[in-house]
Design brief:
This protein is an alpha+beta fold. The chain has helices spanning 5-33, 36-40, 48-56, 129-141, 146-153, 165-194, 200-203, 215-224, 295-308, 318-327; strands at 43-45, 61-78, 81-90, 98-104, 114-125, 157-159, 226-230, 233-236, 239-243, 248-252, 256-265, 274-282, 286-293, 313-314. The protein contains 10 helices and 14 strands.
C-alpha cells in the first residue's frame, strides 16, 4: 500500500509530539505541587504560637528563632552514634503548651541541658515513626498519655536535620532540564510537521548525494516500482524504505553494504517479549537502526536483498563484523 512520504512524516511528527507534551504537563504539575517557595524562603517565626500557625497553614517549613530550649534526655541516632537531640520549649500563651525541636549535635559533643537561643531553618514533621516513638517514651517518663502530649505540643516536630533545600534545588534543575529537552523536541516536531523536508530521514539523503526534493522521486517509485513489500518495509527499484511507528528510513539500495536483524528480549513485557530491529550500514559510512519491525517481514526482505544484490552483505557474525570494519 502506497504511503506518501510527506504525509507519513507529518503523521509521525504529530505522534512524536504526544510523549514530550505529556512529560511537560507532568513537569509543570510537579513545579506547582513541590513546595519550593516554602523550602527556600520559609516563613519566619519567633514563638511557638507563630510556628503552630505556620504548621496549621501546611507550609511545611519554618525559619525559627527560639529562646530557652530544654533537653528532653532523648537523642536521635544514626547507627550507634547520636547525631541530634530532642528539645522542648514551653509557651503557655501560644495555644500549645509546648513544642518539640530536633537539634543537630556537633560531632563529639554532648547535648546541652539548656540552649539559651537557637535559630535555624527547619522542616515541620508530623508523620515520622522516630518522633512517634519519642513521644510515647517521653510521655511515659513524665506521666502523661501519648495523646495528651500530642495535644499539648501540637503533634509536630521542628526538625533542623530534616531541612534539605539542596534536594529541591537539584529537583528543580532536573525538572527545568527535562522541560527544556521536551520543549526542543516539541518545537522540532512542529517545524518538521510543517516542513517535512527537514525530517532527519530526508536530510540523511544528502549523505548519498540526494536531497529533500528527491522525496517526490521516491514517492513515484513507491507507486510504480515496488519490487517487494512486507508489512512496513518496502523495496523499490532503487530504494529501501521502512515506515516505522515513530520514524522513517529511506536508503538507496546502491549505498547499502551491510544489513542484519537485531533481536531484543524484553522480560518485563506481558506479551511480545521479543522485538526486532533492522540495522543498515551504508557507504558513505552511516548506521541506521529501525525498531519495531516484524520477524516475518524482516526475514523476507533480508532474504530478498541477500539473493538479489551481491554488493549487500546480509546477516551478522563476528567474522562479518571484522570484515565490515575493514571496509568502512
Amino acid at each position: 500500500m502506497h504511503k506518501s512520504i510527506k504525509q507519513y512524516i507529518k503523521k509521525i511528527s504529530a505522534v512524536n509530539l504526544i510523549f514530550p507534551v505529556i512529560i511537560c504537563i507532568i513537569m509543570v504539575v510537579l513545579l506547582l505541587v513541590i513546595p519550593s517557595k516554602n523550602v527556600f524562603s520559609p516563613t519566619e517565626a519567633t514563638s511557638i504560637g507563630q510556628i503552630k500557625e505556620i504548621y496549621s497553614k501546611d507550609e511545611g517549613y519554618v525559619d525559627f528563632s527560639i529562646d530557652d530550649l530544654l533537653y528532653t534526655g532523648y537523642d536521635y541516632y544514626s547507627g550507634s552514634t547520636p547525631v541530634a537531640s530532642y528539645y522542648y520549649s514551653v509557651d503557655a500563651n501560644s495555644g500549645s503548651l509546648c513544642a518539640f525541636f530536633l537539634i543537630p549535635l556537633e560531632k563529639g559533643q554532648n547535648p546541652q541541658e539548656v540552649i539559651n537561643h537557637y535559630s535555624a531553618k527547619a522542616k515541620l514533621v508530623d508523620d515520622d515513626k522516630y518522633f512517634s516513638t519519642f513521644l510515647a517514651a517521653y510521655a511515659s517518663d513524665i506521666g502523661w498519655s501519648t495523646q495528651g502530649l500530642i495535644e499539648a505540643s501540637g503533634g509536630f516536630l521542628v526538625s533542623d536535620p530534616d531541612y534539605h533545600p539542596e534536594i529541591f534545588v537539584i529537583t528543580r534543575i532536573l525538572i527545568y532540564i527535562v522541560l527544556l529537552l521536551c520543549g526542543i523536541s516539541i518545537l522540532a516536531n512542529i517545524i518538521v510537521f510543517f516542513v517535512p523536508h527537514l525530517h532527519h530521514s530526508c536530510r540523511r539523503l544528502r549523505i548519498f548525494g540526494l536531497d529533500g526534493s528527491d522525496v517526490s522521486y521516491i514517492d513515484r517509485e513507491l507507486v510504480k516500482n515496488v519490487v517487494i513489500e512486507e508489512d512496513n518495509i518496502v523495496v523499490t527499484d532503487h530504494f529501501l524504505v521502512i515506515f516505522g511507528k515513530n520514524d522513517l528510513c529511506m536508503v538507496p539500495l546502491f549505498n547499502i553494504i551491510w544489513t542484519y536483524r537485531y533481536n531484543r528480549w524484553h522480560p518485563l513485557r506481558s506479551k511480545d517479549k521479543m522485538s526486532y530491529s533492522i540495522n543498515i550500514i551504508t557507504s558513505p559510512k552511516d548506521k541506521i537502526t529501525m525498531h519495531g519491525c516484524k520477524k516475518k517481514s524482516t526475514d523476507a526482505v533480508l532474504k530478498f536483498l541477500d539473493e538479489e544484490f551481491s554488493h549487500i552483505t546480509v546477516g551478522y557474525s563476528d567474522e562479518i563484523r571484522e570484515e565490515m570494519e575493514k571496509l568502512i
